[in-house]
Amino acid sequence: MPDTKRLVLSLLLLVALGLAGCSSAAREARAERKKDVALEVEESFRQRWIEQRAAALVNRGVSPDLARAQAIEEFRLNYGYTRAAEK
Prior knowledge:
Distance between the termini: 66 Å
Order of helices and strands: HH
Number of strands: 0
Shape: rod-shaped
Strand content: under 5%
Structural class: mainly alpha
C-alpha cells in the first residue's frame, strides 16, 4: 500500500509541475502578444504622423521628398522614446 501512495503522490506532483509549466508558457505567450500589439500601434502612429506632417510641409511649398525626410527626423526628435522612432 505505501508504494501505491508514493506512486499516486509522484503522479500528482508530475501533473502539478506540468500544469505550472503550461501556465508559465501561456503567460509568456500573452506577454508576447501584448508586445506585438504595442509595436503595431506604435508603427501605425508613426506612419500616420509622418504622412500628416509631410503633407503639411508639402502644403507650405516643401518638396515631397524633403518633406518626408523632415517629417521622419521630427518624429525621431519628438517621439524618440518609442520603438517606432528607431526605424
